[in-house]
Amino acid sequence: MNWESPAAFFAMGGYGLYVWGSFGVCAVLMIVEPILASKRRNDILRSLRRERIAENLEQP
Amino acid sequence: MSNNKIIHWFKYASPQSFYPLAGKLIPWFWGLTAVFLIPGLWITFFAAPTDAQQGEGYRIIFIHVPAAWMSMFIYIVMAAWAGLGLALNTRLSGMMAQGLAPTGAIMAFVSLWTGAFWGKPMWGAWWVWDARLTSALILFFLYIGFIALQAAIDDARRADKAGAILALVGVVNVPIIYFSVKWWNTLHQGASVSLTKAPTMAATMLWGMLLMALAFWMYSIAVALTRVRAIILEREAHTEWVKELDEVKA
Amino acid sequence: MLTATGLSCVRGERCLFSGLDLAVGPGEWLHVQGENGAGKTSLLRILASLSPPAEGEIHWKNAPIRTLAEDYHRDMLFLGHHGAVKEELTPFENLTLAAKLDGAPLDETAALKALARFGLRGREDLAVRFLSAGQKRRVLLARLAVRQATLWILDEPFTALDVKAVDMLSGLIEEHVKAGGICILTSHQSMPLPNGRVLKI
Amino acid sequence: MNAILAIIRRDLLLAMRRKSEVLTALFFFIIVVSLFPLGIGPETALLRKIAPGILWVAALLATMLGLSRLFAPDHADGTLEQMVLAPSPLGLLVTGKIIAHWITTGLPLVLLAPVLGIQFDLDSGALGVLMIALLIGTPLLSLIGAIGAALTLGVRGGGVLLSLLVLPLYVPALIFGAGAVEAHISGLGAGGHLSLLAALLALAVFFAPWATTAALRIALE
Fold this sequence. Notes:
Chain B contains nine helices and no strands. Chain B is mainly alpha-helical and 250 residues long. Chains B and C meet through loops of B and loops of C.
């Protein structure tokens, strides 16, 4: 183990800003990207479902 | 036997059969991402020792290098799909290329961003006109151009084909750009410290980098497949098979 | 002999037509009819090999046009919505340059004769931009008259023509068909020509 | 071969009839280059150092200006359809158009560059290298640009998109072109740069007409 305390871990030997700035942005992007991708699929699914309901309404 | 296999492959080249297949594969790739990411991060932050020269700052390369690799690799895969689409006229190829592009652009962006955050403490500047950084920047522009071109064309098939030509032109140009920038860089005596020439790659470091690269790879596949599924639905919205999907009926 | 089997055309998500067969032989002409948006122009562009059909195959003299490429182009003349007439050039320049591109250079007298035939005498050296819409179309007709092609594919050739020019064009088509040529065209007007076959899509 | 000559003749004739387009690009080049000393200051040593880069960047931008008009008028009036359907291979006709584009935009830049180089206090040797570099480099710009022009034909926001697609691909031409002049000034000899530029040109001559042709066919479908 390299780190004596959590504080030392977050300080990263004085490089905290750079290390966490890199990892933070990378993590945010990699969390947001899949969310956006599945949102895109959910959006189209929702509109397809709506279309289907509209079609069924016309019949009677 | 081999004949059967060919038929099998062509079967999955149709969006209709690829859609459920991708749906089944995605959770597996997310699982693999976790399997590689957790030990990778553990090595990154805990197992890898402090670097004598660069202190703790060098830990950035555990994400920088995999992101840079992926940004180049995805571009090549994208161009390969594009070429396949032009040659065989399969619909799925264009969708794959389109699904990969944003992930590739994000990888290129991450490699630029982390490069800057590594460069600031090491070189004392956020941006250095280093050959790798410059060509990564141009690769990022190529991704943006590809995405913008496809977004500007309404007809999906034309967008696929135009994008394919651009991707092929790009893939020929990427090495030319890289070597020209490198040549330019040595001529101007730019930065001599290289990002990947980290002093004495210890075995633990190599393992860490490898695990992180695998994690990024699996992540890219999972996200790209998710996006391809959305693209398939958008393009095939008015076909019978989409109307019969359980997700749509529910 | 131009034959097409099982043609289908998809635009965007819509299927315009499918399973379309046609055969036109020497000395025949075909009038493609249909409502707006039925795919008349798309069909002609497919027949002219400008866009590939979604399904089906087109044969010219028993060989698929995909493989014929330039050989097919040599036998075929296509006139689209846009006249391919350059506004900045004179009718004479337009005609001779188009002929050169077609691989059949035109000598000066032949070009002037063709232009005179379509009532453009005295306007040979005036930039097309100063001509009226009808006169612009007449430059095209002059091209039709000088180009040696067996197969004519004409999209709305009668648009913007006055009565006299309509007569000239129908005369030209009749002459062409009588000489063993083939003509496929779309038109909103009823055709003043005898013996045409009609294809409705 | 006749078809190529016919296309070149036609495009040159058209360029003569709308001179303002050609002249606009040329004056744009002159003005951009002349603005730099005003922004940077008249110090000759500095100007001499930045001259190759500025002249080359201005040449890239001036080439870009006319690029969106390379195929657009032909597309609009139906000439492009006739070119696709001509009995000569489309690749040849496209090459003819690219040559005509170079004669009307690239060649004037080559001829003007030494005059503008004098503004930056370049010596005659450097001016010669600059001209040779532009002579090899500007056809390369026209060839690569043609691919972008064909890809963005009839596309929404085509002009801006065109620069986004093409400018990154111009990077090697810029580096070797400007590098040749710099290398000559610093006494290293421009031969290496010029031969690499020529190699790129050879590659583009084979590859660009093919890609342009494919893109044009797609645009017409």
